Amino acid sequence: STLPAVAEELLREIKKAFQETSQVPDDLLLGLKFIFGPSAVPALDLVDQRSVTRVRSPSGMTLYQVLGSSGKLYTCYSSCHFCTCPAFGFSVLQKSESLLCKHILAVYLSQAMGACQELAVSEEQLTNILLAEEEDEG
Prior knowledge:
Blueprint: H1 5-21, H2 26-36, H3 40-48, E1 52-56, E2 62-67, E3 73-77, E4 82-83, H4 86-94, H5 102-112, E5 117-120, H6 123-137
Parallel strand pairs: 1-5
Antiparallel strand pairs: 1-2, 2-3, 3-4
């Protein structure tokens, strides 16, 4: 699944602007708020706090962990726009009120702004992260 074209284009524009000026212009911030609604400002806060970590294994598997404002760590999969937080399950999947939760939006924004922390893990460590998520849900 992919984001709507307008959202993809906005993220591209943010990346381009950030590469050129190291900041996001006001018009793009307004676009962010317009498209992503109430997730936009909290997502930007998460990026500012450097709460997004790209976790990569030797085989090249990648996932993201976002330290939420509550202090809980959420696992996000940018390839399929999925987050393990309750807001994603409720607002995005059940109600279709939002495109994304603030955690996934923070992942996209931190990618655009080069603000991801990096963590290299073994295949076994990655498996443990994935299994820990399943235990939390079950």
